[in-house]
Amino acid sequence: MFGFTDYLDQDAWSAFVKLAKTVHTKSPQFYMSSAVNYMGPGCRPYIRSTVSKTPRTIDQLSTEQIKISAEMIDEMVAIYNRYFVMLHEQVIYDPQDGSGPQLVDVIPPQSGRTDE
Q1: Tens-place pLDDT, residues 10-28
Q2: Which long-range contacts (CB under 8 A, 24 or more apart) does 79-88 make?
Q3: pTM for this model (two decimals)
């Protein structure tokens, strides 16, 4: 993933993992209730919903859920990379050979996957 520099710089990756877990949260159940009418006397109708717990860790997911989440993350990383390349035409790269940091062009990822 472009822009991923070290363990501490993982905002995008954390968001991907959070979404990969959240997608498996059960849909809430909606029901009719009432709420206090602060603008007048009595109560008024109000639609409420139940709250479902989102899995906190990946190991709380089934094998099938993990597979679906991995597919989703693959798609999100491809989208992230496309926009990273669009917004960052060059990056600073240090080959660690004594020549020092230098600007290099970002090479877009190849379309199509070779590991399938």
Answers
A1: 788 888 889 999 999 888 8
A2: 80/1, 80/2, 80/3, 80/12, 80/16, 81/1, 81/2, 81/108, 81/109, 82/108, 84/2, 84/3, 85/2, 85/109, 88/2, 88/3
A3: 0.59
